[in-house]
Amino acid sequence: MKLYQLRSTQILPISKQAAWDFLSSPNNLKVITPDHMGFQILSGAEKPMFPGQIIQYIVKPFPFFNTKWVTEITHMMKGEYFVDEQRFGPYALWHHKHFIKEVDGGVLMEDIIDYKLPFGILGQLAYPIIVKKQLREIFKYREQKLIELFGKVEGKSNTLELKSI
């Protein structure tokens, strides 16, 4: 079993409350997801985020292939962090931690995703060719979208790291 991890950081020139309000709203996921992913929320986004919340989406990870993705908000400390875990979807495991921390000039957003691919060795072979590239593109898109929406803190760099653990 091979486990992978994505770590992303981005500094935004906004308040911690503004960051929380945007990031903790499931409806904003569509805003920061590339259009080609066909992202659509089916249910679960009508209430403010809470532990135990189930959110159902349709996502199109590859052309001509959509799948249902069901996540649960398992942990949350308002204004600080939340964790979503896949209950059903394209990954064998998806555990996504979102942290928000005040820093000089705004807030640091940090995402840590631990994930496992399905299909055993076939999934591992697809990782460097398809999955790693696609995750990198999705998070780069998200970074640019957040800069468009909120601006950029000059002199601060964002990071994106994908690796096997």
Give keywords.
alpha+beta, 165 residues, cell division, START-like_dom_sf, globular
Topology overview:
Blueprint: E1 4-12, H1 16-23, E2 40-43, E3 54-62, E4 65-77, E5 81-88, E6 93-103, E7 106-116, H2 120-150, E8 159-164
Antiparallel strand pairs: 1-7, 1-8, 2-3, 3-4, 4-5, 5-6, 6-7
Describe this entry's structure for a reader.
This is Cell division inhibitor. Keywords: Cell cycle, Cell division. The chain has 165 residues and is of the alpha+beta class. It has a single domain (4-164), classed as Alpha-D-Glucose-1,6-Bisphosphate, Chain A, domain 4, CATH 3.30.530. It contains two helices and eight strands, in the order E-H-E-E-E-E-E-E-H-E. It has an eight-stranded antiparallel sheet with strand order 2-3-4-5-6-7-1-8. A hairpin with a 4-residue loop joins strand 5 and strand 6. The radius of gyration is 16 Å and the shape is globular. The model has no long low-confidence stretch (mean pLDDT 94).
Low-confidence stretches: none
Count of strand segments: 8
Count the DSSP helices.
2
Strand order of the largest sheet: 2-3-4-5-6-7-1-8
* Total domains: 1
The CATH superfamily is START domain
What is the ordering of alpha helices and beta strands?
EHEEEEEEHE
Q: Quickly give the CATH architecture.
A: 2-Layer Sandwich
Helix content: 10-25%
Protein name: Cell division inhibitor
Organism: Flagellimonas aquimarina
Keywords: Cell cycle, Cell division
